[in-house]
Structures are given as structure tokens and as C-alpha cells.
Amino acid sequence: MLTVMMGCASAHALEDLNGLYQLAVNHNADYRAALANTEAEREELTKAKALFYPKVNLGLMRGRGVTDRTTQTNIGSLNSNLNYELENYSFSVKQPLFNKETMAIYGGAKSYVSAQESLLEQENAKLILKLVSVYLETLYGQERVRLQQSKVDAVSQQLRQAEQRYQRGSGTVVEVSEAQANLDVAKAEQIQAENDLLSNQQSLQILTGVSQPLSAELVVDGLNRFTGAEYPIERWLDLARQNHPELAAATLEVDVARKDIEKKQAGHYPTLDLVGVRSYSQNDSNNTLGSRFDTTTIALQMNVPLFAGGYVSANVRQSANRLTASEETMTAKSREIEFNVRKYYQSLQAQQQSISAYQQAVQSATVALDGTQKGFLAGFKTNHEVLDAQQKLFSTRLLLTKAYYSLISDWVNLQFSSGLLSLEALNRVSQVFVSKK
To answer: Is residue 169 left, alpha or beta, with left meaning phi > 0 and alpha meaning psi from -120 to 50?
Structure first.
């Protein structure tokens, strides 16, 4: 039920919406998948860092060998059979000193992981937006069912009055049929409202795991905090450019594309490594039978690419085109965000005007219905006029109720489009709902 009252919401109502958020975080599969994917992508930075560390290898080999050897001598061929043990142990350390590709990979990984973090932030904002949307739709659905029931009751009463007038001879069968038709339509509308409410409750259950009806009512006087007037439209656009996670991610993806060009250009650069090897071998080949080698080496190793058939240049051109694509994607995302900010800002202003108009319309329709009903009882008004007045009043009440919830929805969408939707905004929405007594 809608109530007109002042004051903050009760602790129970605050726990209701915020509690639903906590349930959604733990229950919603899409968000949990986003968390897991982001955790997986964070490892890209660890993998990139690993390229700067030494590579250490230990090689061990031990076995037996059999060799049939034929040796040419002055007296002819001499055949011998050798059966021996062989061993080979090596320990090597390779420390990269200069590798331009590695540096580019690391820079790209940092930007990539930051982009994934921004996208996770956006997923959290999407979860809050979806939760508030389903929450408002469910509460509106409950209010719609209540209003439809009130309409059914009012039309049923009018039908009884029309039947009584007909029985007394002062009414007509047309009046009874008219009232019955309006009652049938009202019942059909109530069935549709109940079905829509069930769908909304199912959506809420999928999102949070909660299946019971919501026990909250709207504090209408608290809606004055959802005006959007705290900033002019240009300030909202600036906030969106500075804070929107998807725009931040798109900007970082451009940086990733730039680093990819550096990575591909690195194919033209030399690499320099410090290499140390400690090895021991015995009888490891036919040429070293009966010999042992214990060797320690340390050296600088440089590799200079000279020609790769145009492969590196093709990679660079390919990455340059991908950079252009990333820049265009960022531009498209920026335009989309600006469009949404303007749309919801303008819609928010329009909703405020609509609410004022609907409130006045409800007052006028209430007075009109009261006068029409009195005129009907006095014989000055027809049954059709009463039914028409009832229809206008309930339709206007429903439109006013929808406007209340649409105002909150537009404000939340404005916060989302500006990159500001967070738990603070969720708390602000919570404060205009109180638990039902």
C-alpha cells in the first residue's frame, strides 16, 4: 500500500533491500561467474611478471648403453662389444636482461587486468540495477493487484445497486448488463495483474533465492530526494566520463592494443640473456666412452633477428588495425553512455511533472466519482456515468502508482549510466520504503 508520511525507513526495510543484495551476490550465478572469471584473468599479470624472473632447469639422465663397434686395423676389422653406464646431469639458469617483447607483454597485462576489474565493477552495478528494477516491479505489481481488487469491489457494488434499481423498477437491464460487463473486464485485468506479479516474484527468486512476497510500502514524501537536480546535465555527463566502468574498460582496452603493437614490433629487436650452466656427463655418447666431463659455464647470450619473411611487419599492421577498432569501440561506448545519461535525466524531469499532474488528476477524479455516485442515487446520473467515473479514477491511480516507481527507476538508471550506482545509492532507495505493520 502506498502511504504518505515523513521520516526515514525502519531498520527492517533497510535490511530488506540490502539483505536482498547480499542474497543476490551469493545466489546470482551470472555475478558469481563474473567474479570467477575476473579472478582467473588476474593471473595474466602474474604470468607476465614471471617473464622477468630467471628460468631454472635441472636435467637428469642415467642409464645403460650397448655398442657394437668395428675398428679397421692393419690386420683387418676388429669387432668389439661395449656394455657401459651413462650419466648426464645439468643445472642451468637463464636470466633475461633485455627483452622488449616481455616489457610490452607486462604493460599490456596490467592494462588488461585493470580493464577486467572495471568490468567486474560494472557487473556489480548491473546486479544492483537489476535487483532494484525487479524489486520495484514486484512492489508495483503488488500495488497493482491491490488496486485491481479495489476496482473489482467498487464495480461489484455498482452492479448490486444496478440490480436493486432494476428490481424496484427504476433501473434498466442495460444498466445491469453494463455493470456486469465492466465487472468481467475488471476481473480479467485482475487476473492479468496477478499473473504479472507472479512473473515478477519468480524473477526476484531467480535473482536472490527469495520466494515470499515483499513486505514494504513506499514513503511517497521521500521521493523528493530523487530529482537529479543536484547536478546540471553537463555535470552528469562529466561524471559519466570520469566514473563509468565500461568506458574505463574500453579506454584500457585501447592501451592493451597499443601494447600489443609494441609487442609485435619487438620482433625486430635483439634479446639479451645471462646464462649459467653446470653439467656433469659420463659416457654420454660413443665418442666420449670412458670419459667424464664436469663443466661450469657462464655467458651473455644475444639473439639478433635479421629476417623473418615479413612475418613481424604483418603482425604489426594487424595489431595497428586492432588498435583502430578498439578506439572506435571506445568512441561508440562513450556516445552510448552520453545518450543514456541524457535520456534518463530528461525522463526524470518528465516523471516529476507527471507525478504532479497525476496527483491532481486523482483528486479531481475522486471528487468527480463522489459527485457522480450521489447523482446516480438521486436519479440525476446514469449507471454508465458512474462506471466511467470509476474507470477514470482507478486508471489514474494506477498511472500515479506507476509514475512513483518509474521515478525511482529513472534515478537509479541515471546513477548507473553515470557510473555512480553503488551500495550508497542502494541505501538511498531503501530509505523510501518501510515495512508493513
So the answer is: left
